[in-house]
Amino acid sequence: MTQRPTLAVTVGDPVGIGPEITVRTLAEVGAQASARGVVVADPAVLRRAVEVCGLDVRIRAVGSWELPAREEGVIDCFDIGVLGETELEWGRVDERAGAAAVRAIEVATGAAMAGDVSGIVTGPINKEAIWAAGSKHLGHTEMLGELTGVTRQNTMFVVRGKKIFFATRHLSLRTALDQVSEEQQIAQIEEALTALRVFGHDEPRLAVAAINPHGGENGAFGDEEIVHLTPAVERMRATGADVTGPVPADSVFHQLLQGRYDGVLSQYHDQGHIAAKTYDFDGTISVTVGLPILRTSVDHGTAFDIAGQGVADPGTMRSAFLHGAEFSHFADRIRAEYGS
Question: What family is this (predicted)?
Answer without folding.
Answer: Belongs to the PdxA family. PdxA2 subfamily.
